[in-house]
Amino acid sequence: MKKKKREENPFEKKIVANEWVKIVEDTVHGGWRKKDVYPRLFKWSRQFKNKIIVEIGSGQGVCSSKINFRQNKYIGIEPSRWLLARARALYGHKRRKFLGGDAYSLPLRSKSADAAFSINVWFHLKNIKKACSELRRILKPLGEFYIITANPGAYEVWESFFTRYQKKGKMLSGEFYHPVSNLSLNIFYFHSLSDIVGAFEKNDLIIIDIETFSVMKKDTTHRCYVGIKGYAK
Ligand SMILES: C[S@@+](CC[C@H](N)C(=O)[O-])C[C@H]1O[C@@H](n2cnc3c(N)ncnc32)[C@H](O)[C@@H]1O
Fold first, then answer.
1. Would 144 be classed as within a structural domain?
2. Which three-class secondary structure state does DSSP give residue 195?
3. Ligand 1 residue neighbourhood (C-beta within 6 Å)
4. What is the pLDDT of residues 113-138, one digit of tens each?
5. CB of 29 within 8 A of CB of 21?
6. pTM for the full model?
7. Residue 32 φ/ψ, nearest 5 degrees
C-alpha cells in the first residue's frame, strides 16, 4: 500500500528553522510578542500548580520560559529536529523537557496532561480536526487548553506579509516577510472561524473564551490573533 505523504512543515528545513531562530532571538525584534502573547500565556498558566503542561509545536522553546514552569512540569512537542535541538540547548531543565513529535500524533499517553497550549501553530495545520482529536486524547477530563492562532478576521493582514507566494484554496505557501529575516518558506491554512471552532466542538473540547487581540501594521481594526480557551469534557 502507498504510504500517505506527510504534510509539509517548512520548519523541518534547516534553513527555515535557522531563520525562525534568528527572528525569535533577535534582541530588538525578538520581543514582538512581549506585550500581547506572553502576558496572556503567563496569566493562563498561573492557575496551575504541580500539573503537567504540554506545548504543541514548541519551536525553539521560548514559550516554555513564559509560563510558571517552576511550579509545574512542562513538555514541549516539536517536529523540527533543528528547533528541538535549539530548545533543549536553551531551555532544557529538570522541569522542562522537549520531545520530537507531531500535533497529529503526540508522543504522549492518553489522559496524561493537565493542560496544553499551542502558539502560532494551528494556522500551519491542514487538518485541525485531527490536531483537536489528539489534543482531546492527551488531556485529562477537565484538562484545560489555550490555542493562539491567526484571527480569520485578519487574514488579509497575514497575507500581506507573504511576498512571493501561491494560493491554492485555503493554503498559502511562499516567502514571508519579517524585518529580522524573511522566512524563505512559510505555509498557512486560512481556516474559517467556524471550522476552527467546529474542530474543537466535534472533539468534546468545550470552548469557554474566544478573544481577538494584537494589532500589527498600526491598523486598529485588525486584531491579528485569536486566543481560544477551554477544557476537555
Ligand atoms: C511559527 S513557529 C512557532 C513556534 C512556537 N510555538 C513559538 O510560538 O515560538 C511554528 C511551529 O509550528 C511547528 N509545526 C508545524 N507543523 C506542525 C505539526 N504538524 N505538529 C506540530 N508542530 C508543527 C513548526 O515546526 C514550528 O516550530
1. yes
2. helix
3. 9, 11, 20, 24, 56-59, 62-63, 78-80, 83, 102-104, 119-121, 124-125
4. 999 999 999 999 999 999 999 999 99
5. no
6. 0.97
7. -65, -15
